[in-house]
Amino acid sequence: MPLLIKSNYLAELCKNKLEYIALIRSKMSGAVLDEILHTLPRQKEVICRALEIKPEIIDNLYSKKHLCIRNTEIMLDLLLIYSKIYELEGNLTLTQDLLAQRLPALGDKMPNELLDTFTGRTLVKDAINNMKCDEFI
Question: 22, 35, 77, 112: which could form a disulfide with 1 (CB 3.0–4.6 Å)?
């Protein structure tokens, strides 16, 4: 999974909406979720909130052959955000730091506070795109 976070694969795939839908429908495995949480351990609470699951039972998903389509789509959306921030910051620690930092462009909220909703993830993606363009955050 670090490779997905460290690559531009998802961003490129998102450009073709039909291919992205096919990826969502192929459903992410629980093992991939496990790898994501081992790669970005400070994101466990955020991911649990987004998936509407209690942190103490998320381990139960690791053994699932496939997550549901809804959870797969949420996880791919989160991975896209993580990979965009990784592209800006250059390492996983700084990526997680930025997610826990209050940003004026987000009304002084931390990106992590917004990642549990589609609209919040959209706001965070917009802020990241503005950072890429060197606009003030």
Answer: 35
